[in-house]
Design brief:
Elements: H1 13-23, E1 32-35, H2 38-49, E2 56-58, E3 63-65, E4 71-74, H3 77-85, E5 89-93, E6 97-98, E7 104-105, E8 108-109, E9 117-118, H4 125-131, E10 134-138, E11 172-174, E12 177-180, E13 189-193, H5 199-204, H6 224-234, H7 240-243
Protein name: Acyl CoA:acetate/3-ketoacid CoA transferase beta subunit
Organism: Streptomyces pseudovenezuelae
Keywords: Transferase
């Protein structure tokens, strides 16, 4: 199904989120992009079609694909692990909880021995975060996600990553803005606000004290060509609007 949309209509909140996710892979070179989730996937494909043409996209199994999904190469599991362990992959994961130093939890809520809720499990989060750059996508920014301390560390944050050669958290993108760790102690900083969002809204939805610069820039606006690619080529069905409302 294709959704008809005025190509001159202003960018939606979801499209600003796509741009913010795409920017995570800017100037990445020939690395493997592993986006998890709809909007990160649209962002990775947009980056490949525009400012990061050397980016490698995967179908999640053993095939390197073009932005339209057609096969471009073969990626056996052994080679995939080589990329992971050598820092030549940039994954964008989700987070059920994330704290001020970038520790992420996708395993359980509550005490590990008697959790209130069982989630996905640790899965590949430790090896992802210790061995290659890892960013995060949070479609619903709230105090339940942005917490003072995660209940269990799955993805490793800056305060637990001593000696990890390829550990880096380039950004956290939410439906409210973009965050990084460009502070002396590597605690989370508000790096950009999506249009229509205020600093007060972000602070109210965050369960710890953020570093907030005196001037917070807006998220970069998509170009006309980027909007065309998002709306007509990458996601003509408008699925992005179901993940982040306007």
């Amino acid at each position: 199904m294709t959704v008809t949309r005025d190509p001159l209509a202003p960018p939606t909140r979801a499209e600003y989120c796509v741009i913010a996710c795409a920017e995570a892979w800017r100037e990445g070179g020939e690395i493997l992009a592993s986006p998890m989730g709809l909007i990160p996937s649209v962002g990775a494909r947009l980056a490949r079609l525009t400012f990061s043409p050397d980016l490698l996209l995967t179908d999640g199994e053993a095939t390197i694909v073009r932005p339209d999904g057609t096969p471009e190469g073969w990626l056996p599991y052994r080679q995939h692990l080589t990329l992971v362990a050598s820092g030549r992959r940039h994954v964008m994961m989700g987070a059920s909880q994330i704290d001020r130093f970038g520790n992420q939890n996708i395993s359980c809520i509550g005490d590990w021995e008697r959790p209130k809720r069982q989630l996905l499990g640790v899965r590949g989060a430790p090896i992802n975060t210790l061995n290659n750059p890892t960013s995060y996508w949070v479609p619903r920014h709230s105090r339940r996600v942005f917490v003072e301390k995660v209940d269990m560390i799955c993805g490793v944050g800056y305060d637990h990553a001593d000696g990890a050669r390829h550990h880096r958290i380039p950004c956290v993108v939410s439906d409210l803005g973009v965050f990084d760790f460009a502070t002396p102690d590597h605690s989370m900083r508000l790096a950009a606000l999506h249009p229509g969002v205020t600093v007060e809204q972000v602070r109210e939805a965050t369960g710890f004290e953020l570093t907030v610069p005196d001037e917070v820039p807006p998220t970069r606006e998509p170009t006309a060509e980027e909007l065309r690619l998002i709306r007509e080529v990458i996601d003509p069905a408008g699925s992005r609007g179901r993940e982040v409302s306007s």
